[in-house]
Amino acid sequence: MNIAISGSSGFIGKQLVAHFSNQSDEIITIPRIKDETSAVEIAGILAKADVIINLAGAPIIGRWDKEYKKTLFKSRIHTTRTIVDAIGLMETKPKLLISASAVGIYAQEGEQTENQFLQADDYLGYICSNWENEAKQASSYTRVAIMRFGIVLGKGGGALQRMLPLFKLGLGGKIASGKQGFSWIHIHDLLSAVQFIIDKSDLNGEFNFTAPEVVTNEKFTKVLASVVKRPAIFAVPAFALKLVFGEGAIAVSGGQFAPPKHLLDEGFQFSFPELERALMDIVR
After folding, report:
1. What pLDDT is stored for residue 265 in this prediction?
2. What is the mean pLDDT of residues 30-46?
3. In sequence order, which residues have a C-beta less than 8 Å from that of residue 27 and are 6 or more positions away?
4. Helix ranges restricted to H, the chain
5. 47: in domain
């Protein structure tokens, strides 16, 4: 099978490349799509693709000044739009487009599932909504699945790589109140879920890429501290994050309770459904 991937140099992208390469699938790397990149050019690159996985997007963690907000938006919406336009131009259409999104589309209050949710009334919710809508334009050409990522936990990258050094020094702690949701997924289950969607040809729509055990930020902190056998007595106040990240603090201090209802309803089996087991696998 020929798998085309945008954003293949990121943490998730590299893991997907390794996963499919181990299965002897052919990897097609979609280059970074710039303002001058045409749909015709991308259609040529994608000509033999059976599956397209769209992960491209500038990092969410950062200070969201006016210019960076434009970068966050364009790197997702413009890239996705160009890929969808390219699919429309392809003589032989791919069988599936899997496009990234995030649980940041959801409001922070209450449990949010794929079909019953409140959309976040902030810039992250606005980006995710537009991002998904662009990808769904491809549904007239091919099957479309949306991955709403929670916090991806794995070795060698992602959020855990930034947190572990502090926790191992005993300097870890909850963020803000700690009561906000912390929807997470082990990278192994993420890769398996992508393969599950590819293999099950009747699947489409939105999927929370999260583990069944959704926890609070405070519980995540306690479990991680326990796994590395260090105390976690510090806390990062919300106002300090606001000073550092501005409006972008919501990406660090916010959180959602978003269980993987669609995946579970379809019979997907998680290898790491519980946080402690997942962290022990990664850290130890």
Report:
1. 98
2. 96
3. 3, 4, 5, 8, 17, 20, 21
4. 11-22, 39-45, 66-89, 123-136, 158-168, 187-199, 217-227, 238-245, 250-253, 261-265, 275-283
5. yes
d(CA 38, CA 30): 13
Spatial distance between the Cα atoms of 130 and 180, rounded to a whole number of angstroms: 24
The CATH number covering residue 43 comes to: 3.40.50.720
> What amino acid occupies position 182?
F
Q: How far apart are CA 106 and CA 210, in angstroms?
A: 13
| Cβ neighbours for 239, distance < 8 A, ≥ 6 positions apart | none
Average pLDDT, rounded, for the chain: 94
CB 150 within 8 Å of CB 209: yes
The residue length of the chain stands at: 284
In a domain, 263, yes or no: yes
**Within a domain: 124:** yes
Q: Does residue 172 belong to any structural domain of this protein? A: no
Please answer whether residues 198 and 5 qualify as being in contact, where contact means their C-beta atoms are separated by less than 8 angstroms: no
pTM: 0.95
Residue 124's domain spans which residues?
2-152+183-211+258-271
Domains held by the chain: number? 1
